[in-house]
Design brief:
Layout (H helix, E strand, L loop, with lengths): L2 E6 L20 E2 L2 E2 H10 L4 E8 L4 H15 L5 E5 L4 H10 L7 E6 L7 H12 L4 E7 L6 E3 L2 E4 L7 E3 L3 E4 H14 L6 H7 L5 E4 L13 H6 L7 E18 L2 E2 L2 E2 L14 H13 L5 H4 L12 H14 L3 E10 L9 H12 L6 E6 L5 H4 L3 E13 L2
Parallel strand pairs: 1-4, 1-6, 4-5, 7-12, 16-17
Antiparallel strand pairs: 2-3, 6-11, 7-10, 7-11, 8-9, 13-18, 14-15, 16-18
The structure holds cytidine-5'-triphosphate and magnesium ion.
């Protein structure tokens, strides 16, 4: 599903204006770029998003567009973007943003530029929920304070805290659903403070996923300290590369499996696990991205526990460890080297299975096969080998 993001930066930042020296908060400089840029960078790291619509105050639109061109030239967003003018209320700005989405866009993330600390992991949770059938999905955190309803100076009620959640952005939607709900919102003149409310008023269910405590909205002067200390900021990410290599001997043992896909007619391989040379190389490459040693340290081939174990399970376990380390995989490139069997008919199956195992999109996975021109042990049909490269972003430090 093609996904675009709308980054809302068309507010007046009135609660912060004085402390920010009269600057609207979305234009405050942080780490050498305005706040609105940082959210766009996080979204652009998620391979499943295709582009960004920025919404700026009408009076700032031209300047902001120029600033974006400069940032894109030197810091490179890596995806198309457009900038449009917002409206008087947040919901008007969203409406204008929706009209600027390209035809191809099927899902949309609406995000406040004033929340620069969200992570790719949160964006992925939202996209997974949309893929799973949600029409609208929002990040939610349990509340720690007791929340009271008030009428002037008097408490009028105390909702049960267990049923309350604090809601953040980005909020994810099926584009057509959000568009229709916003159309109705406009004609019926509803007043809302977020986009989920528009779906709620239209009677459409909205799902929640876990939000992030660090994903605060810069609103009041004291929030500026968060920018300075960076204590709650999303960790800076560094690009990393992991490489893996594995060999299996042909001989009676396990029926051939590559990338989790059975290869009928392929020679059997000698192995302790299921002998999937490709997934072993891939698992090692993933371990390489997190300083995780090698596959043998984690799953010793002397252990009965791992006898004939599916290599997909081993890969899953390492992928879980990588996710815990905050790793965001950007690309997987694997090559199988064998004289026999012929792998062309299986490459696409294998690619699909790697996408499924690592929750990646087809563009992020490449599967190749080659022979070694009858040279060496693969050329003599004595065995098979595979190499894998994983590129990823890892939290710095
Ligand atoms: N926003 C917008 N268009 C508006 C109002 C708000 O695009 N007419 C954006 C803001 O730029 C911000 C997000 O919506 O990124 C959330 O709004 P809020 O935190 O209330 O920002 P401001 O309205 O700018 O601040 P304030 O309410 O203090 O004036
Ligand atoms: Mg506001």
């Amino acid at each position: 599903m093609k996904c675009w993001s709308i980054i809302l930066a068309a507010g007046s930042g009135s609660r912060l204006a004085e402390a920010a020296g009269g600057k609207k908060k979305q234009f405050i400089e942080w780490k050498g770029a305005p706040l609105f840029w940082h959210s766009a960078v996080v979204l652009s790291r998620v391979a499943r998003t295709q582009g960004v619509v920025f919404v700026f105050p009408e009076e700032d639109l031209e300047d902001a567009r120029e600033q974006l061109k400069g940032l894109d030239k030197f810091r490179y967003l890596g995806m198309p973007w457009v900038a449009v003018a917002g409206g008087p209320r947040r919901q008007d700005s969203v409406y204008n943003g929706l009209t600027a989405l390209p035809r191809e866009c099927e899902t949309v993330l609406v995000h406040d530029a004033a929340r620069p600390f969200m992570t790719p992991a949160l964006v992925n949770r939202l996209l997974d929920a949309l893929k799973g059938g949600a029409k609208g999905v929002i990040p939610a955190l349990p509340v720690t304070d007791t929340i009271k309803a008030v009428d002037g100076n008097t408490v009028s009620g105390t909702p049960d805290r267990a049923t309350l959640r604090a809601i953040q952005t980005p909020q994810g939607f099926i584009r057509s659903v959000l568009q229709q709900a916003h159309d109705t919102c406009r004609t019926e003149n509803w007043q809302v403070t977020d986009d989920a409310s528009v779906l709620e008023q239209a009677g459409i269910p909205v799902m929640i996923v876990d939000g992030e405590p660090a994903n605060i909205k810069i609103t009041h002067p004291e929030d500026l300290a968060m920018l300075e200390s960076q204590s709650s900021s999303a960790p800076a990410m560094v690009p990393v590369v992991g490489w893996g290599y594995d060999v299996h001997r042909y001989g009676s043992g396990r029926p051939m499996k590559l990338g989790g896909v059975p290869i009928p007619g392929g020679p059997e391989v000698v192995a302790h696990s299921d002998g999937d040379v490709l997934l072993h190389a891939l698992t090692d490459a993933l371990l390489g991205c997190i300083g995780g040693g090698d596959i043998g340290e984690h799953f010793p081939d002397t252990s009965a526990e791992f006898d004939n174990i599916s290599s997909g399970i081993l890969l899953n376990e390492v992928a879980d460890k990588a996710a815990q380390a905050g790793l965001v995989i950007t690309n997987v490139d694997v090559t199988v080297i064998a004289q026999i069997p012929k792998l062309a008919p299986w490459k696409d199956h294998i690619k699909k299975n790697i996408c499924r195992l690592l929750k990646l999109e087809p563009i992020q996975v490449n599967v190749k096969a080659t022979t070694e021109e009858k040279l060496g042990f693969t050329g003599e049909k004595k065995g098979i080998k595979a190499v894998a490269t994983v590129t990823a972003l890892r939290p710095a430090g």
